[in-house]
Each structure stands twice: as structure tokens, then as C-alpha cells.
Write a structure and sequence with these properties.
308 residues; mainly alpha
Amino acid sequence: STVLDRWARFLRKGSLSLTIRELGHMGLPERALQTLCWAQRQKAVPLFPDDRVLASAIEVLARFDQLKVESALEQCVPTASRAVLEAMASGFIRAGKVDRVRKVLELARINNRTLHPSIYVKLMLEATRTPEGYGLASALIDELGERPDLELRPQDCTAVMKVCIKLRRYAAVDSLFSWFRESSGSPTVVMYTTVIHSRCRDGRHREALSLVWEMEQAGRLLDLPAYRVIVKLCVALQDPERALRYLSRMKEAGFIPTGDMYDSLIEGYLADGRLAKCRQLIRDAESAGVKLDRRLLSRLSEIGGRHP
């Protein structure tokens, strides 16, 4: 009050929402609550009720496990605004309280309330931190797929794809990819890379390669994860020469190849019996300061001893 009273006449509704969020970032939930209570007491300048301020405070308190609403959720969900419900769910997710978020979503469904799809995405990512949450994540994917008003930002769509890969639901990745292209237009390089990785995991290497060509024809600039996936894809297609060309392009673009990329390439040439090429790649990796798989190096040493 000592600080805020001086500025009360300059404030407008919503002004304190950013302050409350910043107090949360500073790890001060009790100050966030005090700020909310101060706003509620103001009479000369009406600062409350205000959903923005309330939602910010709810999110901070839920994130620090200081929002005791278990017994009041059934009364709260039908009447609270969508912003407040989403803030509550986001706070519980950041606190790792998956069961509470699930209860909020279930009560929202019962009361014909809809929350933004990004809440489902955040909950999926939190649930799949442990195998015990895989069932919940799979159910959330199905729920999202049934929504006629599905709105996913590119980063959210990619995040759901990564969850699907972890759950081995590769067909869902392709369905999401098709939906995004039809509804939103051009996929990002991150999304292309995710779908290529999914098809590789599913053993559909030729389909993955066709997507590489599509991505390049669309003029997407490849980043480090894209090069990693493509190099491993080419090795899986038993085409280490193509993989080596991508490695060279990558270095020309200013990226430093990772150890697993060199490992994959060496494995590819080793399968072809091209030991000289393997040794050259080992020298390249060592000169770049990249660490290789010790077991692979040991195997190469044994083979080299048998085949001078």
C-alpha cells in the first residue's frame, strides 16, 4: 500500500496485471496476492472487478501451489471467465499439478465451457515427462482431434506432433501436418523436420525423403536439427554419399556437425566396408573437437586390425 497508494490515481483497469505477473517471475506470490487485495479495496479509482488482474493473480498463486480451490472447483468453473480458467490451468501445469488441470478441463467440458487448445498442449507436454502420463496425453490428443474449432499456432502444432512421436502415434502426426497445411498454409522448417523424424521412426524412409525435397523446394533454410535428421535419414536409406553431401552443405552454412551425425555417417560407410572413408571422418571429427561413440571406435579398431 505504501508504494501503490501514491500511484492509484494514474492506474486504469488491467494496469496491475503485468505487475502481478512480474511478482510471480520474481518468486513473490504473497506480494502478488497483496497487490490483488489492494486493487479490490480501491474505491476512488475503480480497479476491480477486473479479469486481467484476477487471472494474473490466479496464475501466480496456482503456480506456487498457494491456490486452495479443490473443494470450490465445481462452483468456480461454471461462473469464472475463460481467462481466469485458463490462467488457473496454466498455473497448475507450471506447478506440475496434472490431476488438478485434468479436473478443471473435465468440469469445463461438463459445463460446456471451452478452453484454448494451447492449454491442452501445455498439459500434454507436462504429462509426457513421465511414462505414467502417456495415457492422459493420448486422451488429450483425441479430445483435440474432436474439436471443430481447433486453433493451433505453428509452435503448438509442432509440440503436439512431438508428443505423438513419443507416443508412437505416427498417423496422428501426418493428420496434423495435413490439417495445418490445409488450414494455415506453409509449414515451418521445424514442423517439416518433426514430420520427417516421425516418418523415419515409423520406417517410412522414402516418404520422409520426399518431404525433404518438398521442404527444399519451398525454400526453407535448414537449421541444425534439420540437417541432423536428414543425415540420419540418408544413412538409413543406405546412401551415405548423399548424407556426406548434406554434411558438407551444413558446414558451409556455418554449422558444426554433432557427434551423433558423424557416428551415423561412419556406421553407413562401415556397412559398405569403406574403412578408409571411416578413418577420414574420424580425423574430421577429431579436428573439429567432436567426440565420437567409443564403442563405435572400438569396433572400427578391431575391424581395422583384421583388415589392414
